[in-house]
Amino acid sequence: MKAQKKNFTKMNFLGVVLFALFALNTSFAQTNEKTISGTISDSYGPIEDVNIVLKGTKTGTTTNEKGEFTFPKSLAKGDILIVSYLGYKTQNITITENTKSLVLVLKDDLIEIAGALNNNTPYKSKRSK
């Protein structure tokens, strides 16, 4: 009877140790995810309200008045950030193992207005006289 009780106690202790190892295993696991921050500017200085979005998601952020941002989600190797702002070329930035922060200088993009302006007709008011 004592031998059975001793074996049962050993099994309980072993069960608790195994449970603890499995429960703590995820907290010690290494992940390649990291928080990315950076600054975005053009040839004149920092740009406010630049859009930074994780490709394929609706997760993103914008730059502050100093052109600074911190992405709200941890990113992994291979994730792609889409950086866009009206009047500038959109850039796709692929996150690598070495990416810690981003310093981007946006380049001007040509904006075309659809339709031609008609300058041949004088301005006419719609008010009745």
CATH class of the largest domain: Mainly Beta
What number of structural domains do the residues give? Answer: 2
Report how far the terminal alpha carbons are from each other: 114 Å
- SSE series: HEEEEEEEE
Structural class: alpha+beta
Largest sheet: 4 strands, mixed
Mind telling me the C-alpha Rg? 29 Å
Number of helices: 1
What spatial form do the alpha-carbon principal axes imply? elongated
Uncertain regions spanning at least 5 consecutive residues = none
Written account of the structure:
It comes from Pseudofulvibacter geojedonensis. InterPro entries: CarboxyPept-like_regulatory. This is Carboxypeptidase-like regulatory domain-containing protein. Residues 1-29 form the signal peptide. 21% of the residues lie in helices and 25% in strands. It has 2 domains: 1-30; 37-105, Immunoglobulin-like. It has 129 residues and is of the alpha+beta class. The strands form 2 sheets. Strands 1, 2, 5 and 8 form a 4-stranded mixed beta sheet that branches. It has a 4-stranded antiparallel beta sheet with strand order 4-3-6-7, with no helix packed on it. A hairpin with a 6-residue loop joins strand 6 and strand 7 (91-94).
